[in-house]
Every structure is written in C-alpha cells, then in structure tokens.
Amino acid sequence: MKNATDPFLSLGYWPSAGSFGFNTDILATNPINLSVVLGVLIFFGKGVLSDLLDNRKQRILKTIRNSEELRGGALEQLEKARARLLKVEMEADQFRVNGYSEIEREKLNLINSTSKTLEQLENYKNETIHFEQQRAINQVRQRVFQQALQGALGTLNSCLNNELHLRTISTNIAMFGMMKEITD
C-alpha cells in the first residue's frame, strides 16, 4: 500500500537540471521561512510600534506641560499668599497689643493651606505621569503580544493538518473571548 506522502517525497529526488522543484528538506526550509516571517514582522511592526510610542510620548509630554501650568498657577497663588502675609504682618504691627495671637494663627493657616495645595498639585502631577506611563507600557505589551501571537498562528497554520488546525482555531477564539472580557 502506498503512503499518501510518497508523491511529495519523491519530488525531492527528481534531478535538478535547472528546473523548478520542491525542497522537502524541512531542516533547510524552516530557517528560511522563519527568517522571512521575522523580517516581515520587524519591517512592518517597527513602524506601528514607533508610532504608538510617539503618540504615547506626546500625550505624556502634554500631561507634563499641563501639570507644569498647574504648578505655575500654584506658584502665583503662593506669591499672592506671600503678599497677603506681608499685609497681615504689617497689620499685626499695628494691632500687636490687641490681637497678636489671632494674627499668628491666621498666618500659619494660610501657609499650611498653601503648602497643602502645592503638595496636592504635585501629587496629582506625579500620579498622572505614572498612570500614563503604565498605560503606555500596557498598550505596548498588548501590541507585542498580539503580533507575536499572529506570528505563532501563521507558523502553526503552515504546520497543522485540518483537524488539528480547526481545534487550534477554536481554542484561540475562546482565548480571545476571555481576553476581551478581561480588558472590558
């Protein structure tokens, strides 16, 4: 009884007198195929990845600029508070006998509230930067994972028979459904 792969195996034994033929040596063709696939992934994937990183960088820089503007506003408030403090100190000299302790209390409250406001703005800026960085990292990880998975599926598709191919597709569809539920 003849094996179903005999005609394909015999193609490799035809004399090659400058004619086209099939190379059935799997050890010689797999590195070539893998290098072609990796070359295509690198060529097309680096542009997408660099665009994604550039966009993320612009968003982070915009967030930093916004935070710096908020910081500038807080510094203006601090200057106004200092001017107010000078005014309060001048009034304190006039009313030192009657209300020295009250004025000192107001001065401390003003300084404390301004310091808290500056601290809150600084914390907000740092949290925003950290959040944007984590979001960018997660998006890059997801993109790299998707590209790697597509490459692996391409390699698997070329190596699988029909039954194994259908089972693999069903399993991957279920995985993508679970990933979608997790990300939603």
TrEMBL record:
Residues that span the membrane, as ranges: 32-53
Give the record's membrane topology.
Answer: Single-pass membrane protein
What GO molecular function annotation could you give as one example from this UniProt entry? Answer: proton-transporting ATP synthase activity, rotational mechanism
Q: Please list the coiled coil stretches.
A: 64-98
Q: Which domain of life is it from?
A: Eukaryota
Gene Ontology CC, one term? proton-transporting ATP synthase complex
Function per UniProt: F(1)F(0) ATP synthase produces ATP from ADP in the presence of a proton or sodium gradient. F-type ATPases consist of two structural domains, F(1) containing the extramembraneous catalytic core and F(0) containing the membrane proton channel, linked together by a central stalk and a peripheral stalk. During catalysis, ATP synthesis in the catalytic domain of F(1) is coupled via a rotary mechanism of the central stalk subunits to proton translocation. Component of the F(0) channel, it forms part of the peripheral stalk, linking F(1) to F(0).
Q: Its quaternary structure?
A: F-type ATPases have 2 components, F(1) - the catalytic core - and F(0) - the membrane proton channel. F(1) has five subunits: alpha(3), beta(3), gamma(1), delta(1), epsilon(1). F(0) has four main subunits: a(1), b(1), b'(1) and c(10-14). The alpha and beta chains form an alternating ring which encloses part of the gamma chain. F(1) is attached to F(0) by a central stalk formed by the gamma and epsilon chains, while a peripheral stalk is formed by the delta, b and b' chains.
Q: What is this protein identified as?
A: ATP synthase subunit b, chloroplastic
User: What organism is the protein native to?
Assistant: Gironniera subaequalis
